[in-house]
Amino acid sequence: MSLKDIYLTKSSKNYAGLENNKNSRYEIIGVPFDSSTSYKPGTRFGPDAIRQAASGLESNSYFSDIYLEDIGIIDEGDVGIVIGDINETLNRITGVISDVIQENKIPIMIGGEHTITYGSMRAFKKQGITPCLIVIDAHYDLRDEYLGLKNGHASVMRRSLELLGGTKINYIGVRAYSKEEKNYALSKNNINTIKPSDIYKVGLINAINSVKKFLVDCKHIYLSIDMDGFDPSYAPGVGNPEPGGITNIEGLTIINQIVDERLVGADVVEVSPPYDQGGITSSLAAKLINEIIMKNYISLSKKNS
Amino acid sequence: MSLKDIYLTKSSKNYAGLENNKNSRYEIIGVPFDSSTSYKPGTRFGPDAIRQAASGLESNSYFSDIYLEDIGIIDEGDVGIVIGDINETLNRITGVISDVIQENKIPIMIGGEHTITYGSMRAFKKQGITPCLIVIDAHYDLRDEYLGLKNGHASVMRRSLELLGGTKINYIGVRAYSKEEKNYALSKNNINTIKPSDIYKVGLINAINSVKKFLVDCKHIYLSIDMDGFDPSYAPGVGNPEPGGITNIEGLTIINQIVDERLVGADVVEVSPPYDQGGITSSLAAKLINEIIMKNYISLSKKNS
Amino acid sequence: MSLKDIYLTKSSKNYAGLENNKNSRYEIIGVPFDSSTSYKPGTRFGPDAIRQAASGLESNSYFSDIYLEDIGIIDEGDVGIVIGDINETLNRITGVISDVIQENKIPIMIGGEHTITYGSMRAFKKQGITPCLIVIDAHYDLRDEYLGLKNGHASVMRRSLELLGGTKINYIGVRAYSKEEKNYALSKNNINTIKPSDIYKVGLINAINSVKKFLVDCKHIYLSIDMDGFDPSYAPGVGNPEPGGITNIEGLTIINQIVDERLVGADVVEVSPPYDQGGITSSLAAKLINEIIMKNYISLSKKNS
Amino acid sequence: MSLKDIYLTKSSKNYAGLENNKNSRYEIIGVPFDSSTSYKPGTRFGPDAIRQAASGLESNSYFSDIYLEDIGIIDEGDVGIVIGDINETLNRITGVISDVIQENKIPIMIGGEHTITYGSMRAFKKQGITPCLIVIDAHYDLRDEYLGLKNGHASVMRRSLELLGGTKINYIGVRAYSKEEKNYALSKNNINTIKPSDIYKVGLINAINSVKKFLVDCKHIYLSIDMDGFDPSYAPGVGNPEPGGITNIEGLTIINQIVDERLVGADVVEVSPPYDQGGITSSLAAKLINEIIMKNYISLSKKNS
Amino acid sequence: MSLKDIYLTKSSKNYAGLENNKNSRYEIIGVPFDSSTSYKPGTRFGPDAIRQAASGLESNSYFSDIYLEDIGIIDEGDVGIVIGDINETLNRITGVISDVIQENKIPIMIGGEHTITYGSMRAFKKQGITPCLIVIDAHYDLRDEYLGLKNGHASVMRRSLELLGGTKINYIGVRAYSKEEKNYALSKNNINTIKPSDIYKVGLINAINSVKKFLVDCKHIYLSIDMDGFDPSYAPGVGNPEPGGITNIEGLTIINQIVDERLVGADVVEVSPPYDQGGITSSLAAKLINEIIMKNYISLSKKNS
Amino acid sequence: MSLKDIYLTKSSKNYAGLENNKNSRYEIIGVPFDSSTSYKPGTRFGPDAIRQAASGLESNSYFSDIYLEDIGIIDEGDVGIVIGDINETLNRITGVISDVIQENKIPIMIGGEHTITYGSMRAFKKQGITPCLIVIDAHYDLRDEYLGLKNGHASVMRRSLELLGGTKINYIGVRAYSKEEKNYALSKNNINTIKPSDIYKVGLINAINSVKKFLVDCKHIYLSIDMDGFDPSYAPGVGNPEPGGITNIEGLTIINQIVDERLVGADVVEVSPPYDQGGITSSLAAKLINEIIMKNYISLSKKNS
Ligand SMILES: [Mn+2]
Ligand SMILES: [Mn+2]
Ligand SMILES: [Mn+2]
Ligand SMILES: [Mn+2]
Ligand SMILES: [Mn+2]
Ligand SMILES: [Mn+2]
Ligand SMILES: [Mn+2]
Ligand SMILES: [Mn+2]
Ligand SMILES: [Mn+2]
Ligand SMILES: [Mn+2]
Ligand SMILES: [Mn+2]
Ligand SMILES: [Mn+2]
Predict the structure, then answer these.
(1) Which positions in this protein are listed as binding Mn(2+) (chains A, B, C, D, E, F) (predicted)?
(2) Pairwise CB contact (< 8 Å): D36 & F83
(3) Euclidean distance between CA atoms B60 and B65, whole angstroms
């Protein structure tokens, strides 16, 4: 064995600095796309920032006696996006995620802007899976269009719902919306909303239970986390910080309570490193991913035992 | 109509990106002055940062079914300040705010350093109005002078109280002071102080009620928000971050509870964009302004109906 | 006259802080578009940064006894771009610039990414004008496509040449290119290239004279300045700094020598404020614009006298 | 007296801008060392940032009617560290702190990386003092080695425990660890851990009481604060932000409750100014130091009266 | 000798990290004042940035076999300025500099904004010295007033000339001015101007010789360097970068050629650290100061030998 | 072939975004080590910044009709350094570089601080090669020790000369040194120095010729580029910017003239991304590497044909 093999570190830029573990079910896929971002671009630097932040975290779970390196991950690198062309980029995402699903793996997509979730939704649809959605976000993203754009981040959930028919969607953290969006959300039975003020009023555990109840009959669940669902004090590094979001511990607890063996995929989006002093948004994003993986792993292990 | 009329966007730098609505009662006035700032200058960039942050927010209220664009605003631009000359700058503020009051409008001043509040106070005095004051701040700003300066931000409330005679002032968030200021505040009947620890001890609602009671017989109310009244986690972008302030939701709830039809004016000061990573301080400032306007509008509508 | 009229400064965000002068021939038009930027986004903040930088410059010319405020400008504000949609954005640019041309004014477009020049080219074509082009750039931008994009900044001159048929184009500052671009440029008679090393070898005056000679029979001239044509020491705030460009004084001298009464329009693009410490790139961009306007004004005055 | 004596300010860079008071027991000692920092260097700038932040704070205590300037401090400046040589640097720290102890003063060390605490521990050992430790930290720092380094920040408490034999150590804020560290900590009777989730579960006062009880028979106490023990929203400016830490008010309350007359020294480490937007981490660090000094002073006064 | 004496470094924040040498003739005096700065504040951080930058430089001269540490300096710290009050600040500067002159020392003032030079001028006048001035600047600073301010940086040389009667002033680097200033400068026999374009046209040595000739009958010389006299590529960290200035080597050569035994004082102003990426402006400022001191020392030594 | 194979981009973080070409002779090896950096740490981020900057450059040579992608590179990733332990890190560098030499490849090391060059020197020595050195640097790095450190960046050439016996070393760009270093350099026949002022005096071509002559009898040449050899206007992103260095075009021309078939290895060090606004230092570093590779390739091709 040469000294190059010993001393050169090939894995240093992998998620959490972990060597890929081919047996792991969890595939990290970066999508550094932000061309439709309306105000402050920068989420294209999100995937690498989250990978690095993950290296700075210890690998323990806050909730169980388990460590990420015992499970392992596969970091597939980034989708080769087409700058300025959301449609082609979405096509590539759909292609890649479809492959992941066919391999019976669980895709964990790291953005990039929220729009990319739609590419993932299409892959599930294509593979015959219609998951229910849990969305942590300050916004509904239910506009029919925004600044003339049908396929932008402000419309991603509108498009996804159209695609997935009557699937259920449970929002957590929503507090900012247009009149149109609010009315749309109120008029639909398949949309449930937990505002931060609801958590304050009924308590975190009751709020979580209402989500569980709403989704009780779902066969598959997909989790999409727009980091602006968190309060700006915990996640300053986003394009549109909106006061009054959930705390980091609330978010982590929600993950730990809601993720189970039904999870088929997840994404964490809208981390904008140029606005993320100290990297605290990236670091929360990484911690969320770690807990998603560890909780799903435990759930699957229990189910299979 | 020419294509220039269609495609050129004249209003893009207005508050919240809204076209001026001449029928609105709310006049936004920037004062980009920071010459007496003792440590970290930068609040001169506050007005534009708050305008931009407002464009990133949705226009809904957190507390009522109302939207800012249904009310409208008039963004008057900035007072032409004189750098290094606080006296002339205060004269200009007084002149401009007097005009606004005479037009029967409500001035919402965005700073700039806290000193500018004194210019507004003089305008009210000149127009025969002696408002009670609600001040959100980490500090009393009651020094008789500071570093040889009589008219600096550390003395703005001392000067204002001298001007307005026995008017009442209710502080919220104060936690940092000199011995002199504390003794001065304790010795005066017309000064009431709600510390963050008081909110913690008695609860937010009780704290708000004590403010309401203290100001119950006031005919007019002026609200002055120094962003350092908030905890640095919610408002890092200020000159003097002081640990242990109020949260963003506490601040917004206070606004929603205390603003009523007696409000004659308001200011939001001390946002320092160079120290405001992710723009979360600007964005909280803008949200506070939105809720001030929406609550006063509702109160006036109820009174008039 | 009210004090608001006296003290509120409406023009503070206009180019160079100048009030619009309706009699001026020079129309400043911002295009804050950067969605197809391949590596470091940020030129969307270029227009405002250049406006502000212009306020920091004195108004004298370096070459003649003339002052910008004696000529005046009209700052039309920004084209309302569609984020992520280069085609619709180009349509709007074409519409706006067409209007300007019809008013017999000279458009000075400030970017934004280089792609926007194509919108301007189409407006001239539409109005029956086929200008020769002078392009200051480190790159040819002559790729047939780049990363799957036909209408991106790397192809803007290829598309423009296709549009304008056999028009002449004179590059200054080019030093970085693909094999394809170099061969394309070499194969065309209507393309002339002055590299920085040519200026070094033959001297600035001889280099300028060769440009003049190449363009001697052009009826109309359009000047497009990609700030990366300058050396990174003079223009660090660009997306792709390429060592070995022209100096600021060389660029200003070129402007002063080459701009004459045939100029029908100009643009200055690719200023990226997030990467422009001290604002020196913005400030050079503003100075270039000032000298373009002042030299064209002198040339027109001479011709008309 | 010359005008130079009057107008030149020699103390402006001292801690809190205070002139040294030779009668004070509190000696501020900076250690700008960060050579073993694994990811984001920058704590070498910590000492000066904390000194400056202290100048921005008012001098009152949040808990008692006392002011820092009535007690005074001695700012001894910085230990002359040897970059890249942790062993020699530790030797110098040990030398300096030994001197301080012999003068019967209380050293307050400001870092710099956490490793420097070991230099201080050796000084106490040398002077015949074996303090119990209270450590606020997100991490145990109990690794036997890390990246081949025995004397790095990840091992500082392991080395200190080895040095001080069976002394007690009470952690507050720990939430991130390797399997090895967790097992080590669980296996030792002299290690007590208060996680943030414990504070949440039992309440702050009960948590504090359990610390008091654990340390009840300690004769001397040394307090070491790694700023990453705080939640990243309160302390973003650290090398490894780990979600879910204690709040600033919890930290200050803990200080106020736990510091008593047994305190023999303290340190505040891991402030990394390049990652500390708005300086809120420095400013919390300074506030913690102020309250440590004021509470110890009160405790000693009571004991001596 | 205690270990504290050995290991604690008291001088680490002195200019160039040098211990004060009481026998040196050169007194460094910081003036962290920027209250009248019109656009981008920040020069208040200049003095410390220059001190630190000096520590990063080697101590050799570029022109002679001499080293700064063989001469030594006295760093007196900073004048205690009054924020927002230029008149009182100027009084203090005048007081301090008068003391320095009376001690027969040479003051080297580091700014801070250019306005502070006037305080120094008054001190010389008061001590019966009327020096000729050499001013490196992009601007004349000869406005009668600017934005209503008589004593601002844009008027500092106008005020100084009024104070010093018919003294001679030689500008180097001027290229940006109002019509009023240009006409004023042209109308006066005691004002000589070397523009950057003059250096280009006649060569550096000839340009320097014309300065020498103009000042040949001056008994005393004071040198004032506004860093914006340099090209923005060499000095980006200034409030108003103006393209086309002198190079760092030109500036250093000018210093080396023009400074002689007649020098009675100097200042280096307008370094603005927040805009000075990489600290290259500070570092040039420090190098200029080093060469000023070393050249004057050599000149005096020759004269005295 | 799966869509993952098509759309996932594994090579995006390789040098210049190029896939490794196993037939290439050029091996890029990063060494992200900066633990002995005395003032401003940050060069540990250099390797990745240079890799990314290389992706932003076109692949053409400025001097010949050749393109980097026709030659190809092998990016080996980074040496796994030991933070704070220069000796072990040097051992690993020596091990890795030895492997590269044995494979008959040419190592291009990217730093990291200058100290790492010593690791490379030991590898050549070990493999029986004693190259002559060409060093571009503002400094001699010939101190016997610095701040107590024998193996720091300030001594790297002293240690290397001791190791390599009487090998020749030719400095280019040196302008800052201690008395000791200057005397050492002057006293040795095997040391030749080209200062920036020499280039100015004799012209670039003559200066280059004197280097060629000095090294004419060398069998092997190693090129070490400390980016602070360049003027700070071209390379602001370094730890110790020293005014008056060489220009980017001078540096590139020197490379093109001096590199020939004798080159056995090279390094480019001291790029400090946190201080490198706009990335212009990284981008110059990458361009230097590209031209080194392309010129050596041409030289070898000629020799072999
Ligand atoms: Mn959102
Ligand atoms: Mn979203
Ligand atoms: Mn305050
Ligand atoms: Mn205040
Ligand atoms: Mn270009
Ligand atoms: Mn271009
Ligand atoms: Mn820690
Ligand atoms: Mn620690
Ligand atoms: Mn100037
Ligand atoms: Mn000046
Ligand atoms: Mn060097
Ligand atoms: Mn070196």
Answers:
(1) 114, 137, 139, 141, 226, 228
(2) yes
(3) 7
| Interatomic CA distance for residues F97 and C80, integer angstroms | 55
Provide the Cα torsion B236, B239, B241, B242; round to 10°.
-160
CB distance C178 to C146 below 8 Å: no
For residue D103, give the nearest of D76, D130, D122 by alpha carbon.
D76
Containing H/E element for A264?
Answer: strand A263-269
CA atoms of E96 and B150, how far apart (whole Å): 24
Q: Give me the pLDDT at residue F283, please.
A: 97
DSSP 8-class letter at C17:
G
Q: Is residue D296 a contact partner of residue D276, using CB atoms and an 8 Å limit?
A: no
B198 in a labelled binding site: no
CB pairs under 8 A between A and F: 65
End-to-end CA distance of chain B: 40
* F272 Cβ contact partners less than 8 Å away, ≥ 6 residues apart: E278, F40, F41, F42, F43, F45, F46, F237, F238, F239, F281
All structural domains of chain A with their residue ranges: 21-304
- Whether the CB-CB separation of D266 and D135 falls below 8 Å is answered with no
Ligand lying closest to the C-alpha of residue C142: 6
> Comparing C-alpha atoms, which of F206, F105, F107, F93 is closest to residue F151?
F93
Query: Would you say residue A85 has pLDDT above 90?
Result: no
How far, CA to CA in Å, does B126 sit from each of B156, B164, D178? Answer: 18, 11, 67
Tracing tokens 């939701």 back to the chain, one arrives at B249
Distance CA C196, CA A305 (A): 71
ipTM of this predicted structure: 0.91
Q: Answer yes or no: do D3 and E78 touch at CB < 8 A.
A: no
> How is residue E258 written in tokens?
């023009």
E226, amino acid identity:
D
Residue-wise pLDDT for C89-144, tens only, equals: 999 999 999 999 999 999 999 999 999 999 999 999 999 999 999 999 999 999 99
SS3 A166: coil
Centre a 10 Å sphere on the Cβ of residue F23 and count the other Cβ atoms it contains.
8
Range D13-299: architecture per CATH: 3-Layer(aba) Sandwich (3.40)
How far are the Cα atoms of A270, B134, B161, B215, E246 from residue B168, in angstroms, in the given order?
A: 46, 9, 8, 7, 60
| pLDDT for residue B226 is more than 90 | yes
Residue E133 to residue E223: CA distance in whole angstroms: 6
Tell me which H or E stretch contains E121: helix E116-126
Topology of the domain covering F19-304: Arginase; Chain A (3.40.800)
Percent of chain C whose pLDDT exceeds 70 = 98
How does pLDDT run along chain E (305 residues), one tens digit per residue?
577 888 887 667 899 999 999 999 999 999 999 887 766 778 999 999 999 999 999 999 999 999 999 999 999 999 988 888 889 999 999 999 999 999 999 999 999 999 999 999 999 999 999 999 999 999 999 999 887 778 888 999 999 999 999 899 999 999 999 999 999 999 999 999 999 999 999 999 999 999 999 999 999 999 999 999 999 999 999 989 999 999 999 999 999 999 999 999 999 999 999 899 889 999 999 999 999 999 999 999 998 88
Give A38→chain B minimum CA distance, Å: 9
Contacting partners of chain B (3+ CB pairs under 8 A): A, C, D, E
Strands (E), chain D: 8-9, 26-31, 74-79, 106-111, 132-136, 169-172, 191-194, 221-226, 263-269
In this predicted structure, the answer to whether residue F275 has a pLDDT above a threshold of 70 is: yes
Against chain E, the chains showing at least 3 CB pairs within 8 Å are B, C, D, F
- For domain A21-304, the CATH class is alpha beta
Of F2, F12, F13, the CB nearest to A99: F2
Is residue E255 within a helix (H) or strand (E), and if so which, with residue range? helix E248-258
Q: Please name the CATH architecture into which domain E23-304 falls.
A: 3-Layer(aba) Sandwich (3.40)
